[in-house]
């Protein structure tokens, strides 16, 4: 997949020009395709470049102070909140998703009704817009379970959101573990559990990790699902039951209030950097998996 | 002893597998239980086809928002789909390997940028541009926060979905199609566009449907640049409010029937998404059956 196709009709420039002069339609198509790709890349470069150029000068040390107040809208508490929220969500969704994938791959028999039901629901979960998650979180965790606007409510909401991601990537990773591993382990007298935890899961770690990284990306970028579950308090959290705002929510508040545009630029830079790092790591993992 | 442990763990795994089923059931239950009675109270036709949204007077018609969502999504399709498909074709069949090593991460990055950052970019770049260029210079008027602005932004946001799904389905087409066309004397472009791409049609279609789902469900970016006036959409360069933005904007202070009407709005959105998901799996199944 990584390499582009190997051309089987290698032509010299001269041949190409001749071919195009006979077929102007082909030239137009080639031009259109190139133009579209250029447009896509330019859009990305423009967005990222604009935000970096406008934002980096605004990354002042004051923005990384412990305390948030109206004079200094520090983003440091929001960064801490984001980290806590990410860890908490992954602690919930990680084990659930991984163990669920183990069941789907290692235990369920082919054509099992339950398995197809799990697949359908997981696909449904992937498609649900984040604001619907947010409303559900508000109705269930905040109101019905009386957790109030809290980090815990936000983390559970996000956990449901990233559960299908972790499940799918883990499933793929488990499926790609060769059956000979399982056979060898059984042959040595290991039970099913031992085989899963000692042989299969360890060799599926890179795949599972890539799912976790993808989930981190979604959690960090999420806004709509958090506004009405974790709330928008911009201070350091006292416990998992206190209301918090993550970096994305922080940025939305700054941008929509209209008073702190410079700080919003700076926050956008931090968010972009996080995304860049996440993409870089997942690219490395993907390459590692491919090499085997 | 060992057998007990094995059996217990088997059920633990089973239980975890049921988590996603439980989640979907809970989401449906809570949304419908809170939203459907409100729809009943307002009257289903008044709710879905009412042209006025005035919570102060207990008038809750969400037709403006349904239309807003549909128009903005249609705009995103018009802008995003041609560029997305052509880029997918470029990446699968035209891109030299050296350039590909740069293009692929670029598309991934486009997919990874949080929607609030897209929205902010729209707010500080697109909105002033639309206001000054289309509004003043071309005389369309408007404040810049408009249906057009939101369509452009969403068009950009659905690009990575369309590109990556489209690219992988074009790559999945057997190379013999391409070789056969070449052997018949077709140029590279003709072979790609008239044999390979038609064979990848259902995969490309699935990508577009996924993109539509993303555009309809997008909230934060739209809120920041669409103007959000709660009235019937009046024109391409006038403000518009979508289903998603209606929920976020008013949920903070809504009470009683107003609050339930907002949850009912989410129910409508949810039904939209379920229909799109259904369409997606139908298209995908047709694709795998050949």
From TrEMBL, chain A:
Q: Where is the signal peptide?
A: none
Segments crossing the lipid bilayer: 27-53, 73-105, 117-141, 147-166, 196-220, 264-282
Location in or out of the cell: Cell membrane
**SUPFAM superfamilies the record matches:** MetI-like
Q: InterPro entries annotated for this entry?
A: MetI-like, MetI-like_sf, Phosphate_PstA
- Keyword tags: Cell membrane, Membrane, Transmembrane, Transmembrane helix, Transport
Domain ABC transmembrane type-1 intervals: 79-282
Major subcellular location class: membrane
The record ties this protein, via Gene3D superfamilies, to: MetI-like (1.10.3720.10)
Annotated PROSITE patterns = ABC_TM1
UniProt record similarity statement? Belongs to the binding-protein-dependent transport system permease family. CysTW subfamily.
Instruction: Please name the PANTHER family in this protein's record.
Output: PHOSPHATE TRANSPORT SYSTEM PERMEASE PROTEIN PSTA-RELATED
Record's protein name: Phosphate transport system permease protein PstA
Q: Which organism is it from?
A: Blautia hansenii (Ruminococcus hansenii)
UniProtKB/TrEMBL annotation, chain B:
Its main subcellular localisation, reduced to a broad class, is membrane
Outline the extent of the ABC transmembrane type-1 domain: 66-280
> Topology relative to the membrane, per the entry?
Multi-pass membrane protein
Family matches, as InterPro entries: MetI-like, MetI-like_sf, Phosphate_PstC, Phosphate_Transport_Permease
Pfam families noted in UniProt: BPD_transp_1
From the record, give the transmembrane residue ranges: 62-95, 107-130, 142-163, 204-226, 261-283
| Localization terms from the record | Cell membrane
Aminoacyl-tRNA synthetase keyword on record:
no
CDD domains in UniProt: TM_PBP2
Which key words tag this protein in UniProt?
Cell membrane, Membrane, Phosphate transport, Transmembrane, Transmembrane helix, Transport
- General function of this protein: Part of the binding-protein-dependent transport system for phosphate; probably responsible for the translocation of the substrate across the membrane.
Name the PANTHER family on file.
PHOSPHATE TRANSPORT SYSTEM PERMEASE PROTEIN PST, PHOSPHATE TRANSPORT SYSTEM PERMEASE PROTEIN PSTC
Family from the record: Belongs to the binding-protein-dependent transport system permease family. CysTW subfamily.
What protein am I looking at?
A: Phosphate transport system permease protein
Species annotation: Blautia hansenii (Ruminococcus hansenii)
- UniProt lists the gene as pstC
């Amino acid at each position: 997949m990584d390499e582009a196709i190997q051309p089987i009709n290698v032509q010299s420039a001269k041949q190409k020009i001749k071919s195009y002069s006979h077929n102007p339609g082909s030239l137009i198509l080639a031009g259109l395709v190139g133009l579209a790709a250029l447009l896509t890349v330019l859009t990305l470069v423009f967005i990222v470049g604009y935000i970096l150029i406008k934002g980096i000068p605004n990354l002042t040390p004051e923005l990384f102070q412990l305390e948030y107040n109206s004079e200094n809208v520090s983003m440091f508490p929001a960064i801490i909140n984001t980290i806590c929220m990410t860890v908490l969500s992954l602690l919930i969704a990680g084990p659930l998703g991984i163990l669920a994938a183990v069941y789907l791959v290692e235990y369920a028999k082919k054509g099992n009704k339950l398995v197809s039901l799990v697949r359908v629901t997981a696909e449904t979960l992937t498609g649900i817009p984040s604001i619907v998650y947010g409303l559900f979180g508000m109705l269930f965790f905040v109101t019905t379970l009386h957790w109030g606007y809290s980090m815990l409510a936000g983390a559970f909401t996000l956990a449901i959101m990233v559960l299908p991601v972790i499940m799918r990537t883990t499933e793929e990773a488990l499926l790609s573990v060769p059956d000979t591993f399982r056979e060898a382990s059984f042959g040595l007298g290991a039970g099913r559990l031992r085989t899963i935890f000692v042989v299969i899961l360890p060799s599926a770690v890179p795949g599972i990790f890539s799912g976790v990284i993808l989930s981190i990306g979604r959690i960090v970028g999420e806004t709509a699902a958090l506004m009405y579950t974790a709330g928008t308090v911009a201070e350091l959290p006292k416990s998992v039951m206190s209301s918090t705002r993550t970096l994305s929510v922080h940025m939305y508040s700054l941008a929509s209030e209209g008073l702190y545009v410079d700080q919003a630029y700076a926050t956008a830079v931090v968010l972009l950097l996080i995304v860049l790092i996440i993409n870089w790591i997942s690219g490395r993992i993907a390459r590692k998996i491919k090499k085997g | 002893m060992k057998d007990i442990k094995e059996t217990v763990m088997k059920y633990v795994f089973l239980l975890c597998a049921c988590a996603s089923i439980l989640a979907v059931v809970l989401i449906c239950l809570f949304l419908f239980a809170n939203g459907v009675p409100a729809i009943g109270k307002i009257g289903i036709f008044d709710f879905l086809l009412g042209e006025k949204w005035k919570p102060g007077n207990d008038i809750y018609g969400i037709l403006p928002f349904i239309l807003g969502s549909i128009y903005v999504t249609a705009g995103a399709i018009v802008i995003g789909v041609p560029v997305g498909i052509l880029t997918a074709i470029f990446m699968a069949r035209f891109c030299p390997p050296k350039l590909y090593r740069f293009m692929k991460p670029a598309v991934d990055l486009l997919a990874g940028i949080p929607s609030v950052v897209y929205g902010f970019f729209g707010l500080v770049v697109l909105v002033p541009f639309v206001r000054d260029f289309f509004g003043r210079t071309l005389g369309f008027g408007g404040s810049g926060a408009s249906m057009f602005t939101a369509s452009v932004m969403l068009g950009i946001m659905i690009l990575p979905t369309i590109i990556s799904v489209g690219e992988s389905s074009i790559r999945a087409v057997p190379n013999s199609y391409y070789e056969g066309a070449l052997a018949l004397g077709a140029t590279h472009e003709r072979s790609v566009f008239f044999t390979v791409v038609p064979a990848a049609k259902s995969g490309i279609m699935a990508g577009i449907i996924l993109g539509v789902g993303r555009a309809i469900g997008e909230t934060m970016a739209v809120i920041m640049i669409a103007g959000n006036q709660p009235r019937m959409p009046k024109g391409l360069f006038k403000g518009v409010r979508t289903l998603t933005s209606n929920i976020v904007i008013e949920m903070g202070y809504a009470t009683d029937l107003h609050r339930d009407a907002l949850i009912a709005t989410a129910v409508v959105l949810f039904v939209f998404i379920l229909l799109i998901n259904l369409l997606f799996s139908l298209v995908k199944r047709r694709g795998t059956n050949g």
